[in-house]
Amino acid sequence: MRWSWIDIITHVQKGKVLVAIKNVSMAEDVLHDHFPAQAGPGGEMLPPLPVMPASLLIEGMAQTAGLLVGHAGDFREKVILAKIVKATFEREVTPGQTVRFEATLERMDPSGASTIGAITAIDHASGAEHRVGQVELIFSHIDRNMAGTEFPEENFVFTDNFRALLAAAGMI
Fold first, then answer.
1. Residue 84 belongs to some domain of the structure
2. How far apart (Å, rounded) are the C-alpha atoms in residues 57 and 161?
3. Scanning 12, 40, 47, 99, which has its CA 20 to 30 A from the CA of 71?
4. What digits encode the pLDDT tens for the residues 31-64?
């Protein structure tokens, strides 16, 4: 993986559950486009409302769940996201919050795996924890499902930063 939307793995039960954390900071450029200051319906300027895009929350959950699936098989096979079954969001994530991704393995067989993930946000200003959403994902073991197909190996190699994340969690 070339970039990561998780900062640390805080809990892992091999083949069952993996919990990862992402700290959201105003220093992240992507927040400035969602949503910049703009003119309101009466022409007044509305202040910026920086939020973490839902697509990146799904990516963070996909990385968390993908690591859970890969780790369950000792990273012997290439695991790719095959399908987003369902993604629902109840609230937005803003700078200064910590996102908690909790992925649970629902099913795993030779062709792939299905996971369900809960996303919560910790608001450090108030100390409150809020449910953000839920994401259901399906992963494919492409070594089995697409045997004989050549894939660029660099697409499946963890960067040094990602290896450090896995090593710190005792996963490799």
1. yes
2. 20
3. 99
4. 877 788 899 999 999 888 899 999 999 999 999 9
The encoded tokens of residue 166 equal 């896995």
CB-based contacts of 33, cutoff 8 Å, min separation 6: none
- Dihedral sign of CA atoms 9, 11, 13, 17 in order: negative
For residue 26, the domain's CATH number is 3.10.129.10
Please indicate, yes or no, if residue 1 is contained in any of the structural domains. Answer: no
Tell me the whole-structure pTM to 2 decimals.
0.90
Q: Cβ–Cβ contacts within 10 Å for residue 150, how many?
A: 6
Give the catalytic positions in this structure. 34
Judged by DSSP in three states, 29 sits in helix
Q: Contact at 8 Å (CB) between 125 and 70?
A: no
Alpha-carbon torsion, ordered 149, 154, 157, 162, to 10 deg: -140
**Residues 71-129: pLDDT tens digits?**
999 998 889 999 999 999 999 999 999 999 999 999 999 999 999 999 999 998 899 99
Number of domain units in the chain? 1
